[in-house]
Amino acid sequence: MAPQELHDDGKHKEAPTSTCTPPGSNSNPSGAVHPTTSSPPSDASGHRPAAANPFPLVLKFEEVVYKVKVGQHLIRNDSCSANHLARKSILPETNGDGVPGGGSEGEQKEVRAKLADAYARHIAPAVKLDICSSETASAGIRRGASARVEWTAGWCAQFSVLLRRGLKERRHESFNKLRIFQVLSVAFLAGLLWWRTPAAHLQDRTALIFFFSVFWGFFPLYNAVFVFPLERPMLLKERSSGMYRLSSYFAARTAADLPMELGLPTAFVLILYWMGGLDPRPASFLLSLLVVLYSVLVAQSLGLAIGAVLMDVKQGTTLASVVTMVFLIAGGYYVQHIPPFIGWLKWLNYSFYCYRLLLGIQFRDGGGVYDCGGGALCPVADFPAIKAVGLNNHWVDVCVMALLLVGYRVVAYLALDRLQPR
């Protein structure tokens, strides 16, 4: 019995002729059935029955079907599907009053079974197909995201833009008044303490040289620990939008740090070197300056590696403090006879190599002789603080520091590459 459309004013109106094609026809080869609810049948007089919702099982067909398979999704109201169901004898027959012909529990169970069977035969394949297609699309999106990104600008263009941005940002950070005051005040106070140290005071001169290696071996390390943890949100956001390569960012960051991080060490050496009364020959001064700047770059590389691996300022500063204390003790000045089982720490300590290079520059060719007491003259190379470190193998020290410089920066780059955009 085809459903009829009723209006709220109670007037009877003939139902429109159905233009739906049965599921078995050629227009719908899959035979998919879209069962929906329909208005209850009218009585002989053309009026709606007084009883409200006489057959709740059919009216709640959407909940019965879709709660079984796909949750709370509801099916659209489609009178055509209801006609199809009626033709396939899924819906129970009704009498002239619109009341179901049978309302026993057995008949209701039979209706439920027919509905479930109809869903399994007609609707479930389409639902499974939709789920599979959505999963395939998601996998394709993930594979596309992991594929190589087509950059809108070349590597050199990215490097140039990032370098200019880095110079503009870093100049205010590196040359702020507080940091300049900190470095210059330490240089002047240290110069006053080591004022014109005589060449005969080997202990004071070696202490001054060790101070060079320690101060500029640890000061850049602490500053570099903060770099990548503070820039992490910006880096993830810009990389997720495909703005630039990680290699161009890292290279620009390294290049921008050179003029910013090497200016203050140069001023420090200019002040303290001449106030301390070290070797006045220009070659010795220039070589000492280059060694200090070399040590600054290695220390900064270690700080960048610590910050990139941990990506936490508190954890990074804690680890940096432990590293600096160990390197300070094992630097060759405080402990001159390190036990063999822990002596390997000295060879990982870049401040140790910087200290030995500076000693070799100040005391080249053996360093002459000094008064070792009782009017006797002893070679400078036999002085305990110098003998424990040595005055040879300078090129080995340079190569080892180069390996540490490159190795620390490779670790930092790999740690940054691990931070994939979310």
From TrEMBL:
Entry membrane topology: Multi-pass membrane protein
Residue spans of biased composition, Basic and acidic residues class: 1-15
Matches recorded under Pfam families: ABC2_membrane (PF01061)
Polar residues bias locations: 16-42
Chain segments annotated as coiled-coil in the UniProt record: none
Lineage: superkingdom: Eukaryota
Localization annotation: Membrane
Keywords: Membrane, Transmembrane, Transmembrane helix, Transport
Spans traversing the lipid bilayer: 178-195, 207-230, 250-274, 286-310, 317-335, 395-416
Entry GO MF terms: ABC-type transporter activity
Disordered: annotated segments: 1-49
Domain ABC-2 type transporter transmembrane: 158-363
Cellular component annotations (GO), alphabetically ordered: plasma membrane
The protein's name in its UniProt record: ABC-2 type transporter transmembrane domain-containing protein
